[in-house]
Amino acid sequence: MGLYDRQYTQDGYNSNAKMGGHMGFAFPPVSSIVKILMMINGGVFLVQSFGPDRLLTDYFAVWPKTIGTTLQVWRYVTYQFLHGGFWHVAINMLVLYMFGGLLERLWGDRRFLRFYLVCGIAGGLMYPLLLGLNVLQPNAYGVVPLIGASGSILGILAACAILFPRLPVYVWGIFPIHLWLVALGTMLIALSAVWKDGPNAGGEAAHLGGMIAGGVYVYSDKYRHRLVGKFQKGRWERKITAQHATTQEIDSILQKVHRSGIHSLTHAEKRALKQATETEKTRKRT
User: Fold this and answer.
1) Helix (H) or strand (E) holding 109
2) I need a labelling partner for 188 at 20 to 30 A (CA). Which of 156, 201, 220, 230 fits?
3) Distances (CA, A) of 274 to 6, 195, 269, 270, 281
4) What pTM value is reported for the model?
5) Are 167 and 28 in contact (CB under 8 A)?
6) Which residues contact 138 (CB under 8 A, 6 or more apart)?
7) Superfamily grouping for domain 2-219
8) Beta-bridge mates of residue 2
9) Is 85 left (phi over 0), alpha (psi -120 to 50) or beta?
10) Which of these, 109, 113, 119, 205, lies nearest to 155 by C-alpha position?
11) Domain boundaries, given as residue ranges, for the chain
C-alpha cells in the first residue's frame, strides 16, 4: 500500500513524482508517538514470539469468558499491544505508519495518543458487548481472546477518511482509491462479518468499534470544543467573582484597621488579611 500526499496533510514531504501538479509520492517521516507505538508493539511481539505468549494472552488479552475477566479493565488497553502473528502486527504497524503521523501532526502528540488508546478501548469493548447481546456466539472452542491494535488502527483510518476523504491510497502500489472508499469498504466488511458471525467476527467487532469511535471523535470535535469553552468561561467567571468578593472583604478589613486599629479585628479577619498578604507576595515572586 502506498500513500500519495497532499499539501493540506503535511508540509515536509518530498516530491519525487508529480501527479496533477498537486501530489507527490513520499514516505512520510515517523512522528514521535507513532515511533514509540511501533517500538512498543514490535517489542511486545518479540516477547510473544520468544517468551510466554500464552501467559500474556491469559492476563492481558480481552477475554470475556467470565464476568470477572470481562470487568478486568486493564485488558482493554493491554490487548492492543498483543498480536497473533507477523503479518498481523506488520499490517497494523504499516497502516499506523502511513496514517498515524497525519493525525499526530494535526492534533499534537498527547491528543493523538489519547485518540489512539480510546479507539482501541472502544474496539475492545465492542467484542464483549456484542457477545452479551447475542449478536456474536462462542465458537466450538468457547469464547476466544481478542488481541491486536486493529481497533486503534481502524479508528485512525476512519478519522483520516473524514478529514482527508480524497487522499489517494494505492493498493498494492497499483490501484488508486480515495481514502473514504477504503474506509467505507473496511466498515462494510466488518459489518458483514459481525452480522454473519464469521470466523473472525470478534476481530471485526473490534474493527467496527474502533471505526465508530474514530468517526464520533472527529464529528463531535466542534461540539466538544464548544462545551470545554463554556466550562472554562464559567470557571473563569466564578474565579473573577470570588476574587472580587475577596477584594471587597480585604478593603473592608483595611478600612476597619484605619478607623479602629488592628487590635479591633476578629481572629477570622486577621486570618483573611494574612492570607491575602501571602497571596500577594507569592504573585510578585512569580
Assistant:
1) helix 109-132
2) 220
3) 61, 69, 9, 6, 11
4) 0.71
5) no
6) 131, 144
7) Rhomboid-like (1.20.1540.10)
8) 170
9) left
10) 119
11) 2-219, 224-285
